[in-house]
Amino acid sequence: MNKLLEVEGLKTEFKRAGGNVMAVAGLDFHINSGEVLGLVGESGCGKSVTSLSIMRLLKGTPGQNAGGHVKFEGKDLLRLSENEMRKVRGKELAMIFQEPMTSLNPVLRIGKQIEEPIRLHLGFNKAKAREHAVHMLQLVGIPRASEVMNDYPHQLSGGMRQRVMIAMAMSCHPKLLIADEPTTALDVTIQAQILDLMKRLKEERSMGMLLITHDLGVVAEMCDRVVVMYAGRVVEEAPVKELFANPQHPYTQGLIRSVPKLRQKVKRLESIPGNVPDLSHMPQGCKFAPRCAHVMPECMTTEPELLAVGGEGRKSRCWLTQQSEQKGGSAV
Amino acid sequence: MSQQSTAAANSSQGSGQQPAAPAKRKSATAEFLRKFSKQKVSLVAGIFIILLVLVAIFGPYITPYDPSAPDYDALLAGPSAKHWAGTDEYGRDILSRLIEGTRLSLAVSLSAVLIAAFFGTILGLLSGYYGKWLDRLIMRGSDVMFSFPDILLAIGIVAILGPGLTNVVIAVAVFGIPSFARMIRSVTLSAKETLFVEAARSMGAKDRRIIWRHIFPETLPSVIVNVTMKIGGAILAASSLSFLGMGAKPTEPDWGAMLSMGRDYLSIAPHVVYFPGLIIFLTVLAFNLVGDGLQDALDPKMKN
């Protein structure tokens, strides 16, 4: 399978009065074409910053790229000029956001907003762009599509607005869709509908997808492979089934344990003790060490590398798994 | 608000004559009118302004006398049945001159404020959107302008350009620009952080398009309110300049010029300044009250 997107050593730092902080500290992962990669982690671990860095939408925030490569079909997006990048956004890479309530302009009609990227990237005239926009709305399952074109966002429900956002993102046939927590703001039944829709569209168009979420249920439902992030780093990478069946990194294990299971009575849900470390006061060694149940002396001093462990396509950033790998035993 | 309830609100307003069916498009306007008309003082002020505008348009047809025709039998005559507002030192009918002057005063102030709004909004949008050195340049520039008292700056500009109403318009416009720029900048700063701007950028929209399509509409309510608020000040400023002999020529029936001419006769014929002063006062007050009303009516955070 050829690699659609390759992120190598991506670093994003935020300017702050007391010195810069690294929100994304050397990220490596790739997405194959036609594949859904889940990017999982707690709030504040740098998931959204990663997506903004890939799209180069950090302008106007204190954030800036501090190194690394983002190769999309071989070309490095971080080296493109602003003009070249603008032609890629929406056309090759599209993005949908967490908040469908606020990601549409309240004072513009739905039609105008969908037509905008279509006319920009596909160079359609007004009539053709409108036709295409109606078609896209039908594709994402909006009833009365041509009427909705004349509606304002406030006339639609949250689920409908997210469908509109998806229609907009898909309108120029992007090769990669970045979905930043697309269902977090929706209620559960609508969530399932939107996920089904995204899955169907992905299959119909053999598009790659980067699905950013903290919901492991969504991951299990949607993804082919998963990258687990912690404190701006990848701590584990694995095919989705193996990740759930046999998580390697203690952080991933903690995440999976803290999801309630059906048909199992528990008094309290398990949780990972402690909080994500403050970006400006990172622990010296493994960033997870202060919260880890299996912490060892070397964890406090040196940060482990992200190395292949136990099985095809699996990587983990943990001394323990790497040691047990060497001994040939099973991890943890 | 759903369609039906907007339609219901529409008809319950007593405007039952008009069919409320296509309420979809009208709902925003109807909502605005409903909110605005709830503020009685602003409503009265608004009606006063509409009357003024009508007077400005139809002025030449409704003046009881020719505004520049002298009546040497009635010099500085007080208000009477013949001359409702009295006559000035050449026996010209003051009411006729006030009516004729409405057009002049409104035209001067409105054009000055619209010019200021145009340039101020552009500068504010650029400053807020691009930030960095452009923002610093524009904002420090307006700080310099702010440091002068408005009227002093206008006097300076007129002194350079020479007296005359066109130059008054320019002067009043120039000192109006910074306040527009600063206000629009602050709205732009918050508007550019919104998710829909980010979404538009993620679709590959150009800066120009984002500013025009997504940010400018957000600033419109502020522009409208500020325009109304500034017109009062502009009338005052234009009148002051005319009063100081830097604006309208004495032959022109400008309110400020009339005030200026009349001050020599203040002790013997106070009505000569009384009526121009009153009309300036009422007009400025009306515009400010309407501005207040608009501010409340256009603010989406204010419910009812």
Task: Outline the structure in words.
The complex is a heterodimer of chains A (332) and B (304). Chain A is an alpha/beta fold. Chain A folds into two domains: 3-223, P-loop containing nucleotide triphosphate hydrolases (Rossmann fold), CATH 3.40.50.300; 229-261 and 269-327, no CATH class. Chain A has twelve helices and 13 strands. In chain A, strand 8, helix 7 (188-205) and strand 9 (208-213) form a beta-alpha-beta unit. In chain A, helix 3 (110-122) packs parallel to helix 6. The radius of gyration of chain A is 21 Å and the shape is globular. The mean pLDDT of chain A is 86. Chain B is elongated, with a radius of gyration of 23 Å. Mean pLDDT of chain B is 83; it is low at 1-25. Chain B is mainly α and 304 residues long. Chain B has helices at residues 3-12, 23-37, 40-62, 94-130, 132-147, 150-161, 165-191, 195-202, 207-243, 255-262, 271-298. Chain B is built from eleven helices and no strands. In chain B, helix 3 crosses helix 11 and helix 10 runs antiparallel to helix 11 (271-298). Chains A and B meet through helix 2, helix 3 and helix 6 of A and helix 8 and helix 9 of B.
CATH class of the largest domain in chain A: Alpha Beta
Biggest sheet: strand arrangement of chain A: 7-8-9-3-10-11-13-12
The radius of gyration over CA of chain B amounts to 23 Å
Helix content percent band of chain A: 25-40%
Beta-strand content of chain B: under 5%
What oligomeric assembly is this protein in?
heterodimer
Keywords:
heterodimer; A: about 325 residues; alpha/beta; Rossmann fold; eight-stranded mixed β-sheet; five-stranded antiparallel β-sheet; 12 helices; 13 strands; about 20% strand; B: about 300 residues; mainly alpha; 11 helices
Write the layout of secondary structure elements.
The complex is a heterodimer of chains A (332) and B (304).
Chain A: E1 3-14, E2 21-32, E3 36-40, H1 47-55, E4 63-65, E5 69-72, E6 75-76, H2 82-88, E7 93-96, H3 110-122, H4 126-139, H5 145-148, H6 158-170, E8 176-180, H7 188-205, E9 208-213, H8 216-222, E10 225-230, E11 233-239, H9 240-245, H10 250-257, H11 297-301, E12 307-308, E13 315-316, H12 319-327
Parallel strand pairs in A: 3-9, 3-10, 7-8, 8-9
Antiparallel strand pairs in A: 1-2, 1-4, 1-5, 5-6, 10-11, 11-13, 12-13
Helix pairs in contact in A: 3-4, 3-6, 4-6, 6-7
Chain B: H1 3-12, H2 23-37, H3 40-62, H4 94-130, H5 132-147, H6 150-161, H7 165-191, H8 195-202, H9 207-243, H10 255-262, H11 271-298
Helix pairs in contact in B: 1-2, 2-11, 3-4, 3-11, 4-5, 4-7, 4-9, 5-7, 6-7, 7-9, 8-9, 9-10, 9-11, 10-11
